[in-house]
Amino acid sequence: MKILGLGSIAVDRIFTVDRLPVKDGFSNILDEKVYDGGSCANVINQIAMYGGKSAFCAKIGSDDTSEVIMSGLKKSGIDTAYMIKKENGVSTSTVIYVDQNGDKSILTRVGDCLLNLSDDELNPDIFEVFDLLYTDFIPSRACLYAAREFKKRGKKVIFNLQVAPVVMKGFGMTDEIFAELFKYLDIFNVSFSTLRDISGLSELEENISFMRKTYSYEGTIVLTMGSNGACICTPDGKTIKQPAFKITPTDTTGAGDSFIGTFIYMYFIRNESLESSLSFSNAAAAITCTRKGARSGPDWNELQSFVKEGF
C-alpha cells in the first residue's frame, strides 16, 4: 500500500524552559533544539520509519526553512516528487516551549506557502498512484478536493483533527468544508478533549452519537484520551478501549502523530486487527513522550520490544 500525506509540514524550534511563558512573566531557557515538524509530516515520517511506502505533498518556499524541510523528508526516505515549491516563498515554522513536566505552548509562523496551495497545483497523478490519503486538512480547501478525488476512486481517506474547528478556521476551514469532509472519510482521528469542544458534551457515547447524527458520519472514529489511553468506535457500534502505558513524560510533542502513524501502518499495511493496532499505537505514543522532538517515535524493532516487555 502506498500512502500520501497532504497537509502541514514545518520546522520546529523547541525550547526547554523552567516554566511555560505567561503574560508579563519570566522563564529561563534550559535547552534549545531544531527539529523537523508539522503534524501531517510527522505521521508520514512515522510510517516511513517502519518501512512503509510513503510520499508527501505540500507547498513550501525557497528559504532556509524550506531546505531543512526537504532534507528531513529525504533523510527519512519519503518521496518528495509531489512537493510544490514557491520561489522566494516563506515556509512554515514553529517555536515550541516545553516545561520539565512535558507540557507545551506552540507559536506558529505560517509563512506564505502552506495555506496557499490550490487544487490545480496538485499533481493529478497522486489520485492514481496512491492507495491511501492521510491529511490534517491544512490547507483545508485543497485537502477537501484531494479527499473527494481519492474517495471517487474507492481509496482510503484518514483525517486527523488536531485542534477544534474554530482554530482550524485560521487554516482555511469553514463550517461547510467541515460538514462535507465526513462524506469522504474512512477514519476520523481526534482527541477526546477536542471532540468534547465540538459537541459540548461530556460522555463518550453521547459524543459518538453526536458525530454520527450531526455529520451523518458512518466511518470509524479513533479517539486519543491522553493518560487514559485510546479507543476505537466502529460503524457497527463496537467500542474498543485500551489503557495508556505508564511512563514519565519528557515531551508530549508528536505523541498523537506517532500514534496515528503507527495505527495506519499496523492496520492498513500489516493488516493487523483493530485491537492489536491500537495496542501498538499506544506503545508508540508512550515511547515518543519519553523523548524530545516531534519525530522521536520508535523504529520497528524498538516498538516490538516495548510491546513485548510491557515497558
Could you explain how this protein is built, in words?
This protein is of the alpha/beta class and 311 residues long. The protein has a single domain, classed as Ribokinase (UDP-N-acetylmuramoyl-L-alanine:D-glutamate ligase, 3-Layer(aba) Sandwich), CATH 3.40.1190. Helix content is 36%, strand content 23%. The chain has helices at residues 39-49, 64-75, 126-129, 140-152, 165-168, 175-181, 192-199, 204-214, 255-269, 274-289, 300-309, and strands spanning 2-6, 10-17, 29-37, 53-57, 59-60, 84-85, 93-98, 104-109, 132-135, 156-161, 187-191, 220-224, 230-233, 239-242. The strands form three sheets. Strands 4-1-9-10-11-12-13-14 form an eight-stranded mixed beta sheet. It has a four-stranded mixed beta sheet with strand order 3-2-7-8. Strands 5-6 form a two-stranded parallel sheet. Strand 12 (220-224) and strand 13 (230-233) form a beta hairpin. Helix 1 (39-49) packs across helix 9 (255-269) and helix 9 packs antiparallel against helix 10. The mean pLDDT is 94.
SSE layout:
Elements: E1 2-6, E2 10-17, E3 29-37, H1 39-49, E4 53-57, E5 59-60, H2 64-75, E6 84-85, E7 93-98, E8 104-109, H3 126-129, E9 132-135, H4 140-152, E10 156-161, H5 165-168, H6 175-181, E11 187-191, H7 192-199, H8 204-214, E12 220-224, E13 230-233, E14 239-242, H9 255-269, H10 274-289, H11 300-309
